[in-house]
Amino acid sequence: MNWDVVESWNQLQKWILSERLGRRRYVQTVVLTSLLGFALILTPFFIFFALPDFDSDFLTLPIAAVGIAVAILMVLVYCAASVARLRDMGRSTNWFVAGLIPYLNVLFFIVLALTEGKAARDRAARKQKGTDV
């Protein structure tokens, strides 16, 4: 399995700029990114607790750098997914700033995960009119 960073970044930009990001894909993207990110950040700490005789002085800086880099990537993916979801909902993309405020971001995530997008509203309107087959 080959994971290409450039291809992944291009896909993320495509979501932001053109494609819709539905509720399910938004939740999958944010939750998967969070789980993988926290796993990458917390794994070295669990290793140090499991190996008490391990001298970790020379690894402190690299582990901190990796943790900061992963945290920054997590925030970027969260912002990109939130902007794409807001566009799908027909809202201003400036609202993604609400997702950066601690404790408010949980409410913001729930709202984005549960609110219908434009495509779902349009499909429901066509179905009501009887034009959708």
Keywords:
single chain, 133 residues, mainly alpha, 0% strand, elongated
Description:
The chain has 133 residues and is mainly alpha-helical. The protein is built from 5 helices and no strands. It has helices spanning 5-17, 23-50, 60-89, 104-114, 118-129. The mean pLDDT is 78.
Short description:
By secondary structure, this protein is mainly alpha-helical. Helix content is 71%, strand content 0%.
Structural class from helices and strands? mainly alpha
Q: Would you tell me the overall average pLDDT?
A: 78
Q: What's the shape?
A: elongated
Task: Summarize the amount of helix as a percent range.
Answer: over 70%
Please report which band the strand proportion falls in: under 5%, 5-15%, 15-25%, 25-35%, 35-45% or over 45%: under 5%
Question: How far is it from the N-terminal to the C-terminal residue, by CA?
Answer: 40 Å
Please give the oligomerization state of what you see. Answer: single chain
* Number of DSSP helical runs: 5
Largest sheet: none
The total beta strand count reads 0
Instruction: List segments where confidence is low: pLDDT < 50 over at least 5 consecutive residues.
Output: none
Give the ordered list of helices and strands: HHHHH
Q: What's the topology here?
A:
Layout: H1 5-17, H2 23-50, H3 60-89, H4 104-114, H5 118-129
Helix pairs in contact: 1-3, 2-3, 2-4
